[in-house]
């Protein structure tokens, strides 16, 4: 478990469309959703995490590994010194930190990576034995001065690295020790990376020409093993969003969540279904049975079934889904966190998270208890 996210000569995987991928009438889905039992999550605070310095902000989503270790990408404190010199200009000084169930903390600093320059962190993926970073970087430092026109119309000068840039996988041990760097074969723009227990990688991204989604298995050495193809309707037509009034485009937020020998892929906040990809490259479509207009904002990794943070909290901020057919099994609300946005994962039936208080990182462990039948989950008494 994590924490839950291809060319003409492609070797495509033969796929059949399972029953769970078939459409369910929205009125039936709404009734099934409403009949799912409701729960409220009560959190207990743990001891503040020691030895990591002040944490004033961190990015979402939080992540987990299958042993319940939490991973958070935090903004480094302003008094932590200068950002690593090998980071790309304007790259925020993020630092991944892991906190084990026994409150043991480790960090994974990118300035420990040798022989790479102009580093931009693209994605990361914690596993039970390592932490994988997907970076865009250059293997040499060729600085040149360039001029550009700012928003005020004035000409400015900056220094850029003109060496060829590639994708690299950088692996750390779970104790924060740098392990190795692997250059990735990158015939498409990779935006998400995952790793199976066998060591193979799952890469997701888009074609650089037409922006169609691409999904591929990579070998342990970073070379392409094969492209994967989902059943029709399993992936969106485009992996990017492009406003009509602008020539720019934005990569649609996509998430990987691992569970046992599978990785689940979801394009967040869309009607796209969940894809389950196995180590063999088999792709299965899961269509959650939701009422019309309700979407999954984010997958919440777990050690069984599927959990998602919902776009509308009226019926519950978190749903548990049957991973086989997409049925809604349970609905949850997190007390004092109506959106459930800070849930990192569900491990041993406990909802794990963090909260930040005056620079201190405090672990949270939540138990689900049946909600009152007399009112909605979002009533004042449940908050």
Concise account of the structure shown:
This protein is mainly β and 383 residues long.
Estimated radius of gyration: 22 Å
Main beta sheet, described? 8 strands, mixed
Give the tally of β-strands: 28
Count of individual domains: 1
The largest sheet has its strands arranged as 22-23-24-25-1-28-27-26
- Counting helices, strands and paired strands, the structural category is mainly beta
- Any guess at the CATH architecture? 6 Propeller
- Give the ordered list of helices and strands: HEEEEEEEEEEEEEEEEEEEEEEEEEEEE
Which CATH top level class fits?
A: Mainly Beta
Helix content: under 10%
Principal-axis shape? globular
Briefly note the CATH topology name: Neuraminidase
End-to-end span in angstroms? 30 Å
Look at the structure and give the mean pLDDT: 79
Low-confidence stretches are: 1-22, 373-383
Beta-strand residue percentage: 35-45%
State the oligomer: single chain
Alpha plus pi helix count: 1
Please supply descriptive tags for the structure shown above.
383 residues; mainly beta; Neuraminidase; 8-stranded mixed β-sheet; 4-stranded antiparallel β-sheet; 1 helix; 28 strands; 3% helix; disordered N terminus; disordered C terminus
């Amino acid at each position: 478990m994590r924490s839950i996210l291809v060319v003409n000569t492609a070797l495509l995987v033969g796929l059949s469309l399972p029953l769970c991928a078939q459409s369910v009438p929205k009125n039936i889905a709404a009734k099934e959703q409403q009949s799912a039992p409701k729960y409220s999550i009560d959190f207990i605070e743990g001891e503040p995490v020691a030895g990591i310095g002040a944490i004033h902000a961190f990015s979402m989503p939080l992540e987990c590994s299958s042993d319940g270790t939490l991973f958070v990408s935090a903004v480094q404190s302003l008094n932590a010194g200068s950002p690593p010199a090998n980071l790309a200009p304007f790259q925020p000084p993020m630092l991944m930190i892991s906190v084990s169930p026994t409150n043991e903390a480790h960090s994974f600093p990118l300035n420990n990576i040798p022989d790479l320059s102009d580093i931009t962190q693209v994605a990361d993926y914690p596993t039970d034995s390592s932490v994988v970073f997907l970076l865009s970087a250059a293997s040499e430092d060729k600085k040149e001065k360039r001029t550009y026109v700012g928003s005020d119309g004035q000409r400015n000068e900056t220094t850029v690295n003109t060496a060829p840039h590639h994708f690299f996988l950088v692996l750390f041990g779970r104790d924060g020790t740098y392990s190795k760097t692997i250059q990735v074969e990158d015939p498409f723009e990779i935006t998400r990376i995952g790793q199976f227990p066998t060591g193979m990688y799952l890469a997701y991204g888009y074609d650089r020409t037409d922006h169609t989604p691409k999904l591929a298995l990579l070998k342990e050495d970073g070379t392409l093993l094969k492209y994967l193809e989902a059943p029709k309707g399993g992936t969106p037509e485009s992996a990017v969003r492009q406003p009509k009034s602008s020539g720019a485009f934005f990569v649609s937020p996509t998430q990987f969540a691992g569970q046992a020998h599978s990785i689940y892929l979801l394009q967040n906040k869309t009607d796209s279904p969940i894809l389950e990809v196995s180590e063999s490259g088999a792709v299965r479509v899961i269509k959650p049975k939701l009422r019309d207009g309700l979407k999954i904002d984010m997958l919440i990794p777990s050690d069984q079934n599927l959990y998602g943070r919902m776009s509308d909290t009226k019926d519950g901020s978190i749903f548990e889904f049957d991973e086989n057919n997409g049925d809604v099994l349970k609905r949850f609300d997190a007390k004092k966190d109506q959106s459930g946005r800070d849930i990192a994962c569900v491990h041993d039936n406990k909802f794990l998270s963090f909260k930040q208080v005056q620079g201190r990182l405090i672990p949270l462990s939540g138990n689900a208890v049946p909600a009152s039948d007399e009112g909605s989950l979002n009533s004042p008494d449940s908050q």
